[in-house]
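Q: Please design a sequence for this.
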């Protein structure tokens, strides 16, 4: 947590000029707000509680009911630079972005390729909802759906979600169930092998993606 706080503060200071520039460019590029907020699913804080109540059937049932209600983790609000047109999902509802997605703005394509749309999430790290490195948080609808279709999907919620992660620098954005399955394998590998050094390696690779645009897309 101390590393997250220090890293987020340093990140905010270093990227403040970039954030101001991006805010101006977004306003010039397309109609709508600079930032986009969305509900995501975070750390499952009830896991330990469920283990302690393993011998009590009633407690187990109540835990499962609450787990269903919060989609296996604690919902929180995430903030990103807007990369899509206003009301992009008004007609379709929550759906994955696809290659050459017409909903993504011209500037949005660059922001997504370089991951700069994620920069405002340094504030979520300061707040404690996220870490610098970890599995990417997903929307409640997708968590509820994918938890029934992808093996071990909810195990991603055993740690705090991150601004960047092993799956993001290796696997890119979700586009199919196959890509989600690959992401889960990367996430579980990260959870099993976590170390400060491992986090630093992932952060270093993320910096390469930001400055070169080269990496999983």
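A: Design:
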């Amino acid at each position: 947590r101390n590393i997250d706080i220090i890293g987020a503060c340093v990140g905010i200071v270093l990227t403040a000029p970039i954030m101001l520039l991006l805010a101006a460019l977004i306003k010039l590029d397309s109609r709508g707000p600079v930032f986009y907020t969305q509900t995501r699913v975070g750390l499952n804080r009830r896991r330990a509680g469920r283990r302690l109540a393993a011998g009590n059937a009633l407690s187990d049932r109540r835990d499962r009911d609450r787990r269903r209600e919060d989609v296996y983790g604690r919902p929180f609000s995430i903030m990103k630079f807007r990369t899509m047109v206003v009301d992009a999902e008004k007609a379709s509802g929550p759906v994955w972005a696809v290659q050459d997605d017409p909903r993504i703005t011209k500037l949005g394509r660059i922001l997504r390729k370089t991951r700069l749309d994620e920069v405002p999430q340094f504030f979520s790290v300061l707040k404690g909802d996220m870490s610098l490195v970890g599995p990417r948080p997903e929307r409640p609808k997708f968590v509820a759906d994918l938890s029934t279709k992808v093996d071990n999907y909810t195990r991603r919620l055993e740690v705090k979600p991150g601004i960047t992660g092993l799956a993001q620098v290796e696997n890119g954005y979700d586009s199919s169930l196959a890509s989600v399955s690959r992401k889960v394998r990367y996430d579980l590998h990260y959870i099993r092998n976590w170390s400060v050094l491992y986090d630093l390696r992932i952060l270093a690779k993320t910096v390469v993606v930001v400055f070169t645009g080269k990496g999983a897309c």
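Q: Thanks. Anything notable?
A: The two ends are 29 Å apart (CA to CA). The chain has nine helices and four strands.
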